[in-house]
Design brief:
The protein is α+β, with helices and mostly antiparallel strands. It has seven helices and 17 strands. The longest helix is centred in the N-terminal third of the chain and has 9 residues, at about 15-25.
Length: about 240
Amino acid sequence: MERLQKVMAEAGVASRRKSEELITTGHVKVNGQLVTTLGTKVTNKDEVMVDGVPLSRSKLVYYLLNKPRGVISSVHDEKGRKTVTDILADEVTTRIYPVGRLDYDTTGLLLLTNDGELANKLTHPRYEVDKTYVAKVKGIPTNDELKQLRLGVKIDGRKAKPAKAKVLNTDYKKGTAIISVTIHEGRNHQVKKMFQVIGHEVLKLHRESYGFLTLQGVPGGQWRKLKTSEVQQLRKL
């Protein structure tokens, strides 16, 4: 037997804390009976319904995708554009969703899972999971400009946390530079906005690592299952 809120979180309904709120505010029934008491335990034989929708207790799955350009980091797209879940659809029948997101034109490492609790923890800034990007930018950033990123620039009226930033390559003829940037926040268009503040437009952006995970052995547009040891290590983060 497991606590109801844990079962809900693992089924991808919401985080464990949000699942607790759904229980106490009368959104959950077990075997047809309304349950509002935290600590209620259920088995695989019990029918759990959230707002009238039966809970699907699929096996927890975890995937690492090398997201290609021109794909939406979502489960569905109103405009009919290809989504990251479409890439796995032929072989993955379990309902999964991306952990965080990458912009339409951004490539690189993206995790997908049906583990709602882990997904919420990984995307919460409190846990400070490092994400490293490689950005091709217009112009050659100076040391002083990169220092601004390292100290934390203000975007959308709020200061970003300090980032790691270093130059990987410069092309003075074309007037571009390749910069490695590591952040542990996940604000909307964050890397692009950070470079915008210091006066350099991002021409291309690629996420090359997420915590200890890298894209080694996973070409663009391809994916792989995470190993059990990798999932355990993610939980430790």
